[in-house]
Amino acid sequence: MNLDEVVEHELIIEALDKVILEKFSNDGYYDLTDFISNNINKNALLSKINSRELKELINLKDMEFLKKLDLAAEIISLDLGINDDEAILFVYLILQKVGKKEEKIQFITRWLIKQTKDKRIQSAENIVYSEERVKIEFIKNINDYLTRMYEIHDQEVWDMNKQEMFFRGHSNCNFKLIPSIMRNNKLYKNENVINKEVLIDCPEDFQNKDTILEKLVMMQHYGLPTRLLDITINPLVALYFACANDAKNTGEVIVLKPSEIKYFDDDEVIALSCLAKLSKDEKIELLNSIKGTNLKENREGRALKKFEIFIKQNGGEVVDILNYDLISNPVVVKSVKHNKRISAQNGLFLICGLNKNVQLRKLQNFKIKLNGKTVVYLIESKYKSKILQELDMLSINSASLFPEIENKAKYVKEKYMC
């Protein structure tokens, strides 16, 4: 089986779709650094695969595994689909077969052109991107970055008096702009259970948190997956998060310009936060019951009645606003800053609705555009350390952004050990 035949196999198509095409189709770019620079830890990925037979196939010498894809597909059972780790591993094995860096980039570029019919796909610094859809800006230092931010203002994309602009930093530009609870199907399936477990185990931490939104903000603060996305009004804070981790990967600052901002006590925000209390089946029932209709016209069904009760318990009103768009559209919300960290990071949140794919598409529309193209601000790994030093001079560091005493102590210790 030659390489062209391999990439036509249903198993490999699913792997490439899951790892590369989904990100590229949504955002217009993909970073191949992990596959080019051998950042992939094959053994670590193998350890996450439960099937002994599949591990034995993958470990066959001289890529003999690629000749037995039918057997691998049988083991995995495509009816259920391959998981993220298996997909990354298969893409890694294919690209190992391709050759050197330039050949890998050309191979993926040709494949993407074939899949998307986009003939304007280019590459730069391991990034493959659609020249028609995105404009890539590489950031080397703070001066570079601030210059780009001023350009947004000068080109009148942003009207300070009418519209606010928000920022989010990703330490790996291949991360998807999606809430943590939606990045893992098992987590999303158990969202309401996860929330209950934390409330049961740590009731004292939530004593003064009266609404579901306040509870979600607290959970987000301690790293529990939620339907919230942290954003900031400070572009330098976002730059810090783009550089602070994943030292081997290209970071990214995402600039968002939503059409409107909501407050913590708006009925729409209350309704979206109440989705976290519904089970997977209840979410599906709710979505199906109102798709293309208004809740005012269709108030039957257990999930819908339960949803309305949650909204009323949290101070919201069940009025005409409750419709398919409401529970599907993400919104920017300004909530009460209950902890020092939110204040230090000039933070607020995006709260997301139902359906992961809808959220990906809707959030994409929030991204800043110049001349019809989404602007992508990337920081290559080799510049991250330098930028962090520059940010430190401006008091943007782990101690200032995470003001709890344990973080300040760690910062001071590391500062004087260098």
Mind explaining what this structure looks like?
This protein is 50% helix and 13% strand. It has helices at 3-6, 10-27, 33-36, 42-47, 52-58, 69-76, 84-98, 101-116, 142-154, 185-189, 191-201, 212-221, 235-243, 267-274, 280-290, 302-313, 324-328, 340-344, 356-366, 381-393, 398-401, 405-417, and strands at 29-31, 121-124, 127-130, 134-138, 166-170, 228-232, 251-256, 261-263, 331-334, 347-351, 369-370, 373-379. Strands 4, 5, 7, 11 and 12 form a five-stranded mixed β-sheet that branches. A four-stranded mixed β-sheet has the order 6-10-9-8. Strands 1-3-2 form a three-stranded antiparallel β-sheet. Helix 2 crosses helix 7 (84-98), helix 14 crosses helix 16 and helix 15 crosses helix 16 (302-313).
What separation lies between the terminal Cα atoms? 53 Å
* Multimeric organization: single chain
Instruction: Count the DSSP helices.
Output: 22
Shape annotation:
globular
Radius of gyration: 23 Å
Structural class assignment: alpha+beta
What's the total count of β strands?
12
What would the average pLDDT be, to the nearest integer? 85
Bin the helical content.
Answer: 40-55%
Quick structural summary:
The protein is α+β, with helices and mostly antiparallel strands and 418 residues long. It has helices at 3-6, 10-27, 33-36, 42-47, 52-58, 69-76, 84-98, 101-116, 142-154, 185-189, 191-201, 212-221, 235-243, 267-274, 280-290, 302-313, 324-328, 340-344, 356-366, 381-393, 398-401, 405-417, and strands at residues 29-31, 121-124, 127-130, 134-138, 166-170, 228-232, 251-256, 261-263, 331-334, 347-351, 369-370, 373-379. Helix content is 50%, strand content 13%.
